[in-house]
Amino acid sequence: YFILQATKLSEEQRPVLLAPVLSRGWAIVENRDAIFKNYKFENFQQAFAFMSYVALNAEKMGHHPEWFNVYNRVDITLTTHDCSGLSDRDLQLAGIADEAAGHFV
Ligand SMILES: C[C@H](O)[C@H](O)[C@H]1CNC2=NC(N)=NC(=O)C2=N1
């Protein structure tokens, strides 16, 4: 599926598909077609276990997060450079990250 071109969310899809993601704590980045969320865990081990899980799934998808970690904090930004904006892949990876975070909170 790497060879399939990521397609930017259409104006019609945007409000519909972004609503559930925004309701789970993601926010739109200013001046950039991207979403971000900050996660906080009990300690570094939990944060890094979360990152490992997300990293494996991101690699499988061929879709990688921009992220930043210090101790128990993980900040994630998602966007698709292949289509210069948000695609369904960002929403899919956001879903994987949220589901994973549930196991480490
Ligand atoms: C060739 C390779 O699959 C592409 O460059 C992938 C890699 N990972 C990616 N990750 C993200 N976040 N956006 C992309 O457009 C993207 N493109």
TrEMBL record:
One of its GO terms (biological process) is tetrahydrobiopterin biosynthetic process. It catalyses: (4aS,6R)-4a-hydroxy-L-erythro-5,6,7,8-tetrahydrobiopterin = (6R)-L-erythro-6,7-dihydrobiopterin + H2O. It is an enzyme of class 4 (lyase). CDD domains: PCD_DCoH_subfamily_b. One of its GO terms (molecular function) is 4-alpha-hydroxytetrahydrobiopterin dehydratase activity. Transmembrane segments: none annotated. Its EC number is 4.2.1.96. InterPro entries: PCD_sf, Pterin_deHydtase. Keywords: Lyase. Gene3D superfamilies: Transcriptional coactivator/pterin dehydratase. NCBIfam families: PRK00823.1-3 (NF002018). Belongs to the pterin-4-alpha-carbinolamine dehydratase family. This is 4a-hydroxytetrahydrobiopterin dehydratase. The lineage of its organism: Eukaryota, Metazoa, Spiralia, Lophotrochozoa, Platyhelminthes.
